[in-house]
Automatic annotation (TrEMBL):
Residue positions binding NADPH: 10, 24, 92, 124, 239, 265
High-level lineage: Bacteria, Pseudomonadati, Planctomycetota, Planctomycetia, Gemmatales
Name of the encoding gene: gpsA
Full protein name: Glycerol-3-phosphate dehydrogenase [NAD(P)+]
Main enzyme class: oxidoreductase
Keyword S-adenosyl-L-methionine: no
Active site: 175
Organism: Tuwongella immobilis
Pathway(s) the chain acts in: Membrane lipid metabolism; glycerophospholipid metabolism
Any one of the GO CC terms: cytosol
Gene3D superfamilies xrefs: N-(1-d-carboxylethyl)-l-norvaline Dehydrogenase, domain 2, NAD(P)-binding Rossmann-like Domain
Length: 317
C-alpha cells in the first residue's frame, strides 16, 4: 500500500515499524529484505517507530497487522484516534478468543466507525512489483469506500466497492482454512480433481457459515470470496497452502510453525470457526477435518478418507 500511495505526488505517506531493528534496516536500505526483497521503497515515504508521528494529521490509517497481534498493537494508537479517524484494514482473520472480525477490534479500541476493509486475491509480492491486481473494498459508510477506491486505484491496481463488510472480512478469513486443506492435498500428492473439489465444496462451506452471521451470499462469488480462495489454494506465495503442504508431507504443526516467523492466519481461524460451528450447530466438514489434523493428531490421509466416506447426498450450493 505504501508503494501504491507513494506513486501519487500529492499524497504524503508514513510507514510505521513496530520494531527498532526492522526500522533501522529499512531506513538504511529502503528495502524489506525479508518479505519483499528487490522492491525498493521510495525516499519520499517517511519511516518512523513513533505512533504520534505516524498518525499526526493523517487522513487515513492503513493496518496490515496479523490478527493475533492486532489488539495489542492497535492499543498503542488508541490515544491518537478520534471518532472521525478513517481506518482501512487489510487483515484477514478472526480473533480466536472473541470471534471478532478485525474491523470490530479496531472499532472497539479506536472508538471510530469510519472503518473499511480491503480484501481479494492480492499477494503483496505481486502488488509491490506492479502486477495487475483486483480487490474489493467495503465500508458501512459508502462514501468512505468510494474515497478509498479513488485514492488507491491505479492502472495496475483495480478496486471494486462492495456493501457487504461482514462478507468481505469473513471470506478473507475463511479462505485460509480451505487453503490449508488444499495444501494438505498437495502434500499428499493428490491432483487437480481433489483440489477442485476442495475449492468448490470449501466455497460452499464459507458461504454457509458467513450468511449465518449476516453476510451476503453474492460476496462469495466475487473477488473477496472465490477470487481470493483460488489464489490462496494455488499460489506458491500462500502461507496457509504452504503449511497444509507440510502437514501432508508428514510434518507436525509445532515443527512447521517453529520453522517460520510468518503469521499463518488459517490455524487460529480454523480453531475459532470450529468452536463456533460446534456451538451453533453448523456443518463444516472440510473445516472440521482440518481442525482434527491441526489439533487432534489425525493423519491427513485419514482425514481425506473420512471426507470421501461421508454419507451420499444431493449437492447443495
Amino acid at each position: 500500500m505504501a508503494l501504491l500511495l507513494a506513486a501519487r505526488p500529492s499524497v504524503q505517506v508514513r510507514l510505521w515499524s513496530a520494531f527498532e531493528e526492522n526500522h533501522r534496516i529499512l531506513r538504511e536500505t529502503r528495502e524489506n529484505q525479508r518479505f519483499l526483497p528487490g522492491v525498493m521503497l521510495p525516499d519520499r515515504v517517511e519511516l518512523t517507530t513513533q505512533e504520534a508521528a505516524a498518525t499526526d494529521g493523517a487522513d487515513l490509517w492503513i493496518t496490515a497487522i496479523p490478527t493475533i497481534h492486532l489488539r495489542s498493537t492497535i492499543r498503542r494508537f488508541a490515544a491518537f484516534a478520534t471518532p472521525q479517524t478513517a481506518v482501512l484494514s487489510l487483515t484477514k482473520g478472526i480473533e480466536a478468543e472473541t470471534f471478532l472480525r478485525p474491523s470490530e477490534i479496531l472499532s472497539e479500541i479506536l472508538g471510530t466507525d469510519r472503518l473499511a476493509v480491503l480484501s481479494g486475491p492480492s499477494h503483496a509480492e505481486e502488488v509491490a512489483r506492479g502486477m495487475p491486481t483486483s480487490v474489493a473494498v467495503s465500508a458501512q459508510e459508502a462514501g468512505l469506500a468510494e474515497w478509498i477506491q479513488s485514492l488507491l486505484s491505479s492502472e495496475r491496481f483495480r478496486i471494486y466497492t462492495n456493501s457487504d463488510r461482514i462478507g468481505v472480512e469473513l471470506a478473507g478469513a475463511l479462505k485460509n482454512v480451505i487453503g490449508i486443506a488444499a495444501g494438505i492435498s498437495d502434500g499428499l500428492g493428490y491432483g487437480d480433481n481433489a483440489k477442485s473439489a476442495l475449492l468448490t465444496r470449501g466455497l460452499t462451506e464459507m458461504t454457509r457459515f458467513s450468511t449465518h452471521y449476516g453476510a451476503q451470499s453474492e460476496t462469495f462469488h466475487g473477488l473477496a470470496g472465490m477470487g481470493d480462495l483460488i489464489t490462496t489454494c494455488f499460489s506458491r506465495h500462500g502461507r496457509n497452502r504452504w503449511l497444509g503442504e507440510q502437514l501432508g508431507r508428514g510434518l507436525s504443526l509445532d515443527a512447521i510453525l517453529a520453522s517460520t516467523r510468518l503469521a499463518v492466519e488459517g490455524v487460529n481461524t480454523c480453531r475459532s470457526v470450529h468452536d463456533r460451528c460446534r456451538n451453533d450447530g453448523l456443518e463444516m466438514p472440510i473445516t472440521s477435518e482440518v481442525y482434527r489434523v491441526l489439533f487432534e493428531g489425525k493423519t491427513p490421509r485419514q482425514a481425506v478418507t473420512d471426507l470421501m466416506h461421508r454419507l451420499p447426498r444431493a449437492e447443495q450450493i
